[in-house]
């Protein structure tokens, strides 16, 4: 365990900011499934407390990279990886690592909202319960705090025991973000978090991410270049499993250093 | 897919967040206005339709309408067939059983004796119903035996079925998983008489010698647990029947549960894993709630089969008439087993009353099965009120 166990002390519902620097990076990372190599020798460093966009055509390995950070690929048959991924001071791929507590520190939001088949309130506190971060009587307060943080509280405060599947897609995604935030992560991985949402919901989610970006380190896979440009501090471009270019978003969009980046940004590849 | 719009004035356009297909580069510049795409090409205007009913086209239309109507009648006929079959069965049983229903009265549901009456004495007529002297029927042990053995079988089969399905879906490598699935289907296809014979010559004696003593001698001497104590019998009775039934309904429930588990979206289980839940927590928080409603449906399917199962139970139940077991080791019988074992002798009743009584018993069995199904539907509706986004079993 790292020295920085933040947030969700049973006493209150603190901001998910407790760590100042949860820098993430990878060095010499190669990842594959069976005989195919999906990522080749990726070395990258992400900015702490900011949104880091990960762009590239479909199948370039963005999601695989994202899922390596919280070891979600472990769940896939025949997965292998080499190299290191650092979250804070810790090597995520190291042997004796506690994957469950890693996933508490590194939260994730998915392409499609994926609420659990339980009430809205239980959804928010499901991770808190699993990690035993709070006592039973505190759960209601925690649910309210995080629902308010994602801006969902006014809409659901009278239906906390309802099914989450009656919410709109955008509301469901916000609920999933509240669920991820409730365990007090230092890092949030976002796998195309708005790609299944309508424009208004997208705006709500983007506003939330922008608000969170000063407190959380985020890595966001997106196919939406405008979104990457709007939200992110750094952008990393992957192409066919290799890292082509990585740097400050403004700089990368304004003057890409590599021919492939320019092609992708101008729509000639991808 | 790339969004076409990269000009700076487009960067604030949030709607570009839509996934591919939903938008075709609204700011692209050269695309046609939508109404042009929707309308027919202007170069080939549609020919004006001939006035209705005229010429060859009109005759064709009439034929098409007729064929449409014929098809409806045709399909309606086949749709009505199953309902008609059910109605015919119930009606025939009801007509046959009616005198027995009148004569046996409510005692049929509360009494335990099963006396066909004197076969060699003169038939007696009571209230216009002819029956042998001393005929007296009470089906309580049959009804209780039917419900008990099926319920016990369900209690045994459901946990094992869930376990089997979970292993098949989540733990076994694909090839082994397919093989296990095949075995389940083979088990489902084994004729009940074969399982009954196995129950008689192998399982029953094994239970009597090994299992039953183990339970009977170790269960605490509490009134509520007396049904687990007492003499262990000779291997024919409630416990053996329940195990045999469990073996028969296990593949149905396991196979259905397996299919349900495969429908649980990986999105949801991934979400639980990404939150740092253990496999067991994912199971109880996401997977099982997701399949719960369907599981109830699957269990009722199994229960329905257990309630009506005849041959195997007739072979291992001990087929005792007129008594109720006081422990799970004692001989018992069910409605179905009684019907099949008593039918031959019932036909020797010259008044036909024994057969009428069996018809009444079979109506009771139909009623039990029906109420189980109705109860299950209500339960499923209750459980499904968590509003899952996907199918919910029955």
Structure description:
The complex is a heterodimer of chains A (about 270) and B (about 400). Chain A has about 270 residues and is α/β, with parallel strands linked by helices. Chain A has helices spanning about 60-70, 100-105, 120-130, 140-150, 155, 170-180, 200-210, 225-230, 250-255, 260-265, and strands spanning about 25-35, 35-45, 50-55, 80-85, 90, 105-110, 185-190, 215-220, 235-240, 240-250. Chain A has a single domain (about 20-265), classed as Rossmann fold (3-Layer(aba) Sandwich), CATH 3.40.50. Chain A is globular. Chain A starts with about 25 loop residues before the first strand and ends in a 5-residue tail after the last helix. The model of chain A is unreliable at about 1-20 (pLDDT under 50). In chain B, the strands form 2 sheets. Chain B has a two-stranded antiparallel sheet with strand order 1-4. In chain B, strands 2-3 form a two-stranded antiparallel sheet. In chain B, α4 (about 140-170) packs antiparallel against α9, α6 (about 190-215) crosses α7 (about 240-265) and α11 (about 335-345) packs antiparallel against α12 (about 355-385). The longest helix of chain B has about 50 residues, at about 55-105. Chain B is flat. The model of chain B is unreliable at about 1-40 and about 390-394 (pLDDT under 50). At the A-B interface, α2, α3, α6, α7 and α8 of A face α8 and α9 of B.
């Amino acid at each position: 365990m790292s020295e920085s166990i933040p947030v969700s002390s049973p006493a209150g519902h603190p901001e998910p900011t407790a760590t100042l620097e949860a820098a993430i990076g990878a060095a010499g990372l190669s990842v594959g499934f069976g005989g195919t190599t999906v990522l080749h020798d990726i070395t990258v460093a992400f900015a702490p407390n900011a949104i880091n966009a990960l762009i590239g055509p479909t199948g370039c390995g963005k999601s695989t990279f994202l899922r390596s950070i919280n070891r979600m690929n472990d769940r896939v048959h025949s997965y292998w990886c080499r190299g290191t991924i650092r979250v804070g001071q810790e090597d995520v791929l190291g042997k004796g690592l506690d994957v469950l507590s890693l996933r508490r520190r590194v939260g994730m939001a998915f392409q499609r909202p994926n609420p659990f088949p339980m009430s809205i309130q239980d959804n928010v506190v499901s991770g808190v319960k699993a990690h035993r971060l709070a006592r039973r009587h505190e759960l209601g307060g925690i649910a309210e705090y995080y629902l308010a943080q994602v801006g969902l509280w006014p809409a659901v405060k009278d239906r906390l025991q309802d099914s989450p599947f009656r919410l709109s897609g955008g509301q469901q995604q916000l609920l999933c973000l509240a669920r991820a935030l409730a365990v007090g992560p230092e890092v949030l991985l976002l796998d195309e978090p708005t790609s299944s949402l309508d424009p208004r919901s997208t705006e709500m989610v983007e506003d939330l991410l922008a608000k969170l970006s000063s407190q959380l380190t985020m890595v966001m896979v997106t196919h939406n270049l405008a979104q990457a440009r709007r939200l992110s501090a750094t952008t990393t471009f992957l192409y066919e499993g290799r890292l082509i270019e990585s740097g400050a978003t403004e700089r990368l969009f304004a003057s890409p250093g590599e021919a492939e980046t320019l092609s992708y940004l101008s729509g000639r590849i991808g | 897919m790339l969004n076409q719009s990269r000009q700076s004035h487009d960067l604030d356009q949030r709607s570009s967040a839509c996934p591919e297909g939903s938008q075709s580069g609204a700011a692209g510049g050269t695309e046609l206005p939508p109404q042009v795409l929707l309308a027919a090409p202007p170069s080939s205007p549609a020919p004006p339709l001939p006035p209705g009913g005229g010429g060859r086209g009109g005759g064709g239309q009439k034929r098409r309408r007729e064929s449409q109507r014929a098809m409806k009648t045709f399909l309606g006929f086949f749709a009505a067939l199953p309902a008609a079959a059910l109605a015919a069965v119930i009606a025939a049983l009801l007509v046959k059983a009616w005198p027995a229903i009148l004569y046996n009265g409510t005692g049929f549901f509360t009494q335990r004796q099963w006396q066909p009456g004197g076969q060699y004495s003169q038939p007696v007529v009571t209230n216009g119903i002819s029956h042998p002297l001393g005929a007296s029927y009470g089906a309580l042990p049959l009804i209780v035996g039917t419900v008990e053995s099926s319920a016990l079988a369900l209690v045994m089969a459901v946990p094992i079925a869930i376990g089997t399905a979970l292993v098949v879906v989540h733990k076994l490598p694909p090839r082994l998983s397919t093989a296990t699935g095949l075995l389940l289907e083979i088990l489902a296809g084994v004729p009940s008489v074969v399982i009954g014979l196995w129950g008689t010559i192998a399982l029953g004696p094994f239970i009597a010698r090994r299992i039953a003593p183990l339970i009977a001698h170790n269960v605490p001497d509490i009134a509520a647990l007396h049904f687990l104590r007492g003499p262990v019998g000779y291997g024919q009775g409630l416990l053996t029947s329940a195990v045999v039934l469990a073996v028969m309904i296990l593949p149905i429930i396991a196979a259905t549960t397996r299919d349900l588990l495969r429908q649980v979206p990986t999105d949801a289980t991934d979400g639980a894993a990404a939150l740092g839940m253990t496999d067991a927590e994912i199971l109880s928080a996401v997977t099982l709630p997701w399949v719960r409603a369907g599981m109830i449906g699957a269990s009722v399917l199994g229960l329905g089969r257990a309630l009506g199962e005849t041959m195997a139970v007739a072979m291992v139940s001990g087929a005792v008439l007129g008594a109720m077991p006081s422990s799970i080791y004692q001989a018992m019988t069910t409605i179905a087993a009684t019907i099949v074992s008593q039918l031959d002798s019932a036909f020797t009743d010259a008044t036909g009353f024994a057969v009428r009584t069996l018809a009444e018993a079979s109506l009771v069995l139909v009623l039990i099965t029906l109420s189980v199904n109705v109860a299950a539907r209500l339960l499923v509706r209750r459980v499904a009120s968590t509003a899952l986004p996907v199918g919910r079993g029955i």
